[in-house]
Amino acid sequence: MKTQSFRTSNRWRRIALSIAWIVCALAGCALIHHNGTPAAAIAPEQINLADDIHLAREGWPAARWWTRYDDPQLNILIDQALDRAPTMRIARTRVAQAKSDVELVSAGSGLQVVALAMLDREHVSANGFLGPFANNVPEEGLTGPWYTEGIVGLGASLNVDIWGKQRAEVAASLGVNNARLAETSAVELEISSDVAQLYYGIQTTYALVALLEQSRDIAAFAVSAHRARVARGLEARTELETAKAQQLAIEQQIVSAQDRIVSFRESLRALIGAGPADLPVIAPVALPGQQAALPATLSYELLARRPDLQAMRWYVQASFDRIDAAKAAFYPSFDIKAFFGLNALHLADLFTRASQQINLIPGLYLPIFDGGRLNANLGGARAQSNMLIDQYNAAVLDAVRDVAQTGSRLQALDTQFDLQRRRVESITFAGDSAEAHYRRGLSSRLAALQARQPVIAEQAALLALHGEIIGQDIALTKALGGGYRADSPVELKPR
């Protein structure tokens, strides 16, 4: 009885010593010194527009916002760009890469099982740890010094994620994947808006060339009329040369406008990724009216509507998960390794019952002294997170500024367009009056045609305003997110 009691007491003593050793080891783990303070995300009240910025129309853009212009040519060009543009292919590749990273990190947290087989032909050293096996004494089971060892079996390992390090790393990789998806939507918005800007740049220049050609015809008639007068000695040559100079100036404007069309077209070709014969012929069409609108309020809704902001929010969220993973690295980690198979010093004995081998190896790893590596890693993760938060805050303010400036510019352009339209109406009246005088024989045809020149000039100014309104219309659509909508906006919770 005394012996049994002694053994029981001794066993409990060993258990107590083991627990004490573990407690001491845990107390000796590396300590967190460089956690830092998380930066604050932007306040909701800073995501708003001034009260004096408003448009006649209200609302958010639709998903395929460009279809509101009802232009089949534009629809084809944007669809082609979204399918073939090099930047779109790059964005999709980045998403595929992020998805692979998620799968890679997730795989590391699961059970790993491998089949293994090994053949080892070795000569045992007589002076080494296995020195007795270097002897050749078959009666004692020693058949050295040469052995052909064989191992066949299954090996398994499992990391037990007690502190959530693996879960945090998986969450971080998922955050990056979601950010890449949002970035793809941002690239789609960038491409579609750039295509629309270039397309309507071409259409506006087409309309300008048509006006300049009218002006050129008038200038050509004036040159012909003055040349006839000079030939008959009715006027000095000065009037003729002045008319020629005006005609040449108009020709220069036409050449410059046609060059802009070529430049717009080639930029469009590069953006779409079209070959020399792949870009559809762009026929002139009438310019559309203003379509964009401002929502009554922006607030946090803008965050869900802007793909670039959602991408940055996901990057920030991923940085929080990396901080969690860096913190978890300070705590003990636990894994289990196992092997089941056959192991024999001689191949002839490998596949026998006696060669069966089973290993079960639980492992506990305690970071005690790491030279500051873990704290440096945590400090770097915190600094990276704070930098991303600051970048995100700046991006939000820039987004609100873009909406405000574009909306305000559209308001001003609407007023300017209305004033210019009324100006064109007034000056057209003067031109029509000169035409009426000519038809009644009260003035010459040259005077009637020259009265049209100021009208054309004012129409060109009105056209320029119209083209700028379309450009700002597209810019406002882009600033509002172009119809993008996040299914579940990320909530930033610094930790």
Automatic annotation (TrEMBL):
It is a lipid-anchor. Its main location: membrane. The keyword Hydrolase does not apply. It is found in: Cell membrane; Membrane. GO terms for cellular component: plasma membrane. It holds the Pfam family OEP. One of its GO terms (molecular function) is efflux transmembrane transporter activity. SUPFAM superfamilies: Outer membrane efflux proteins (OEP) (SSF56954). Keywords: Lipoprotein, Membrane, Palmitate, Signal, Transmembrane, Transmembrane beta strand. Belongs to the outer membrane factor (OMF) (TC 1.B.17) family. PANTHER family: MULTIDRUG RESISTANCE OUTER MEMBRANE PROTEIN MDTP-RELATED, OUTER MEMBRANE CATION EFFLUX PROTEIN. This is Outer membrane protein, multidrug efflux system.
